[in-house]
């Protein structure tokens, strides 16, 4: 009898978790798709923009990086505001403000105006991804969190799968009203953020208690489970906001993220130009199609790695091994001038890199940075495996 009761309870839990995944994750993944597209489409715009505005490689590097200056300044305050006033209002604000800035970026006339626009874009978007990661903890227990985050992060390869060929088509075919195609690229891909911001205000519940797709019993169960986990965490350790900034573990994690994103974003911003150097004479549409290829592998890799991580309740090796593979692939890419070989190598990288080839020493820097990130992950202390309450 007890086994039948436990089986029924586990089945009911699984149905509730599946309902959350279906109703929450697709929408916030769509928002991340829009965010990531606006963040990295400068790489495709550069294929024609750099010549028109006489932007040098060094200046483009600053354009890519200055986005994160604004993001860094307002990231922590943004998350604090989200926690105080709720995800629905604050995420809607983030989307609408960055969408407006993204559209206005299409009207810049000088590289200095572009610097300002990119800085403001980072400022407007600051806190979005950390805010969403915090938001996911309002809905999912630790045992489901890794896969929920991975499903959310599938927006990264999907952005390249959809955005890369779309950006190439816009660059080749959209020259309306006398505006350059790169301007239309930035403006057209900025509009969805404003639309999604309005949808967010009406569709995104702050907490399970506000979810109209859950009945009272489901809301109570989720709230009870999350409250139980929170009490367990507080019983182990509790630090203030001030102590966060002096906590060695926090800075360790910051360094991991810093090293990881050096590799990831260096590739995202430079990929279109690097692929064009390998495929001289091909159209922007073809370049967009080539850029999307590695992301087909990324989708499956993200799913299986996250599922394995949740099933085994192990995080260090599941994070470090893909970073090591990514770093090795990036270093290997630097020794080939074949576009076919470059794309083949990158298919092994999965979600860590979305890259199709390069001829530059910058690849070595990106690859080494991923190795550093992996090493820092492996230096994290090993946590005792949590006891499972039941099968996933």
Structural summary, described in words:
The protein is an all-alpha fold and 392 residues long. The chain has 2 domains: 17-206, Growth Hormone, Chain: A (Up-down Bundle); 248-383, no CATH class. It is built from 17 helices and no strands. The protein has helices at residues 2-40, 42-52, 57-85, 87-105, 111-125, 128-136, 142-153, 155-173, 181-188, 191-203, 216-236, 241-244, 248-278, 284-312, 316-333, 339-346, 362-378. The longest helix is centred in the first third of the chain and has 39 residues, at 2-40. Mean pLDDT is 80; it is low at 339-345, 347-360 and 384-392.
Between the first and last Cα atoms, what is the distance in angstroms? Answer: 21 Å
Decide which structural class fits the backbone.
Answer: mainly alpha
Q: Low-confidence parts, pLDDT < 50 over ≥5 residues?
A: 339-345, 347-360, 384-392
Overall shape: it is globular
Helical residues, percent: over 70%
The total tally of domains equals 2
Strand and helix order: HHHHHHHHHHHHHHHHH
Would you give the CATH topology of the largest domain? Growth Hormone, Chain: A
Beta percentage is under 5%
- Architecture of the largest domain in CATH? Up-down Bundle
Helix count, per DSSP?
17
> How many strands appear in the DSSP assignment?
0
Sketch the major β-sheet: none
Which oligomerization state do the chains in this entry correspond to?
single chain
Q: How much is the average pLDDT?
A: 80
The CATH class of the largest domain turns out to be Mainly Alpha
């Amino acid at each position: 009898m007890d086994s039948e009761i436990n089986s029924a309870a586990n089945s009911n839990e699984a149905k509730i978790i599946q309902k959350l995944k279906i109703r929450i994750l697709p929408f916030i993944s769509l928002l991340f798709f829009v965010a990531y597209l606006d963040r990295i489409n400068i790489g495709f715009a550069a294929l024609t923009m750099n010549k028109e505005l006489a932007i040098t490689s060094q200046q483009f590097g600053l354009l890519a990086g200055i986005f994160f200056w604004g993001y860094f300044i307002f990231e922590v305050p943004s998350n604090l505001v989200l926690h105080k006033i709720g995800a629905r209002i604050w995420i809607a604000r983030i989307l609408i403000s960055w969408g407006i800035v993204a559209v206005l970026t299409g009207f810049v006339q000088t590289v200095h105006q572009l610097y300002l626009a990119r800085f403001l874009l980072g400022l407007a978007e600051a806190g979005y991804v950390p805010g969403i990661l915090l938001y996911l903890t309002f809905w999912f227990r630790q045992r489901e969190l890794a896969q929920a985050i991975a499903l959310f992060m599938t927006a990264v390869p999907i952005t390249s799968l959809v955005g890369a060929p779309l950006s190439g088509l816009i660059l080749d075919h959209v020259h309306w009203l006398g505006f350059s195609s790169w301007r239309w690229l930035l403006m057209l891909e900025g509009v969805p953020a404003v639309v999604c911001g309005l949808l967010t205000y009406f569709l995104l519940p702050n907490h399970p208690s506000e979810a109209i797709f859950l009945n009272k019993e489901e809301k109570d169960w989720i709230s009870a489970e999350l409250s139980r986990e929170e009490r367990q965490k507080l019983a182990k350790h509790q630090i203030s906001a001030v102590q966060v900034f002096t906590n060695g573990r926090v800075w360790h994690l910051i360094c991991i993220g810093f090293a990881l994103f050096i590799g990831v974003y260096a590739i995202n911003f430079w990929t279109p130009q690097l692929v064009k150097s390998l495929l001289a004479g091909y159209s922007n549409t073809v370049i967009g199609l080539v850029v999307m290829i590695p992301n087909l592998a990324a989708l499956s890799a993200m799913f299986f790695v996250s599922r394995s991580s949740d099933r085994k309740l192990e995080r260090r090796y599941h994070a470090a091994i893909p970073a090591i593979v990514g770093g090795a692939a990036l270093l290997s890419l630097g020794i080939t001038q074949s576009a076919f070989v470059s794309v083949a190598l990158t298919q092994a990288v999965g979600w860590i890199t979305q890259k199709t080839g390069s001829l530059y020493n910058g690849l070595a820097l990106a690859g080494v940075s991923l190795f550093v990130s992996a090493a820092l992950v492996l230096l994290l202390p090993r946590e005792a495996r949590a006891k499972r309450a039941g099968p996933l």
